[in-house]
Protein: YtxH domain-containing protein
Amino acid sequence: MIRTLIFGAIAGYVGKKLYDEGKLTEFKNDLTTRFNDAKAKLDEQRADSDASSTAPVVSPATSPAQPLPH
Structure:
C-alpha cells in the first residue's frame, strides 16, 4: 500500500510538471491530429471498397462446387 501511495505521489508530481509546461496540451493536439488523419484514411478506404464491391455474389446453389468426400 505504501508503494502505491509513493507511486501515486510521483505520478501526480510529474503530471503537474508536464501540465505546467504545456506538454500535455501538445500531446493532446498531436493525438487529435493523428486520430483525424486515421479517420479520414479509413473513410477513404470504405468509400473505395464500397465503389469496388459491385462484383457478383456467388451463392452455393450456383457455384460449381464438388461434393465433399465422406
